Amino acid sequence: MTAGDNPAGAGTFVGGTVGVIGAGVMGAGIAQAVAMAGGAVVCVDTSAVARERARRHLVEGRFGLRAAVERGKLAADDVDRVAARIAWEPELSAVAGATVVIEAVPEDLALKVRVFRDLDRVAAAGAVLATNSSGFPVGALAAATDRPTRVLGWHWSSPAQIMRFAEIVVTEHTDADAVETVTRLAHGLGKNPVVVRDAPMSWGYVANRVYWAAVAEARRIVAEGVSTERDVDQLLVDCFRWPVGPFTMIQGATTGWT
Question: Is the dihedral of CA 180, 182, 185, 191 positive or negative?
Fold first, then answer.
């Protein structure tokens, strides 16, 4: 998925403190998106190395605050103010006061289940717990908690601080208030939330199911000798106005920007 500028504060931030679990590329990007919109963030990662790297990339990274200034999306005087809105913490208990907690740990189902079990114990009773999974069943994570009605998916696209994509995944048990809370927050971050249904028997929700179907067909075309990877990419860019073709997209995924 490709970058399209999302101006800082494009929406109006609504809500209290937002918790983010994981200070990797996605977690740090989510934290930055919230902070740029005016929200307070607690970003938790047990790794001191990950926290320090995220803190550094927040300001100096390719999509960091200095880059936002260069693109005219943030005033230079606001860099320190935005950075100060994010607390980088090692303990999960730091998100106890958050109204929404977004899990952004590696795409490992067992790990995510453990995180949700632990979050259920430390998060406020009414807090919404959201997973940034790319396609795992949201119902499986909800079942790991004692608050399944307050658990949903919030699938982001990288770079999270830029992309407007917000795929909100709900189960048959998700409370309407939880959906409203997250969609309102997404709008406040300048995102474009779209609510979809969890489909436990299929991986990928909507965006990734369509995307990987296109990738599979593109690979089949090349394997059959019909065209080359380069020409398939060019044809799809020219025909459908995609910013990049599927093979370029796959290469981008391996370098961490999708």
Answer: negative
Compute how many other C-beta atoms are within 10 angstroms of the C-beta atom of residue 197. Answer: 12
- Residue 110: its H or E element: helix 109-122
Compute the C-alpha angle 38/26/97, nearest 5°: 50
Using CA atoms, how far apart are residues 152 and 106, in angstroms rounded to an integer?
A: 17
List own/partner pairs for 59-62 with CB under 8 A and 24 or more apart.
59/83, 62/159
Q: What is the pLDDT of residue 16?
A: 87
Which of 47-56, 111-120, 245-254 is predicted with the least confidence, judged by mean pLDDT?
245-254
pLDDT value at residue 6 = 44
d(Cα 257, Cα 164) in Å, to the nearest integer?
14
In whole angstroms, what is the distance from residue 51 CA to residue 45 CA? 6
**Taking the model in full, what pTM does it have?**
0.90
Strand bridging mode 41-44 / 151-155: unpaired
